[in-house]
Specification:
single chain, about 130 residues, alpha+beta, six-stranded antiparallel sheet, 3 helices, about 20% strand, globular
Amino acid sequence: MKSFDNEWIFQAFEHHRTFFTKRMFGGLAAYLFGRMMMVLVEPTKTGRWKWHGVLLCTEREHQPSIVKEFRHLAPHDVMSKWLYIDSRHKHFEPTMERVASAMARDDARFGIQPRSKTVSRIRKRA
């Protein structure tokens, strides 16, 4: 199983009973408190994308307050509903340490409720 360069970020919450990971979009999604919190992304072998960093799952209305507190985060160029920080950013590690700490404290600004497969199927039919 492929490991990701930035899995060290999960140390902040790996002992929480609700924590688990799941492969998604060629990346590794982290779930905590029943919410998808982040996706570690790295360049794909197919070249579909060249991102290397972390997508942070949040609702758009929370972005301004998160960016104000964590000023090195920004909406992703393609997936603008989520925030992003490139792993080459000079403030990547300290920023992600602080973000992971906020997530571990169950900061409600972070994370999205995953859609159930049933709901997704119903929406596709409509």
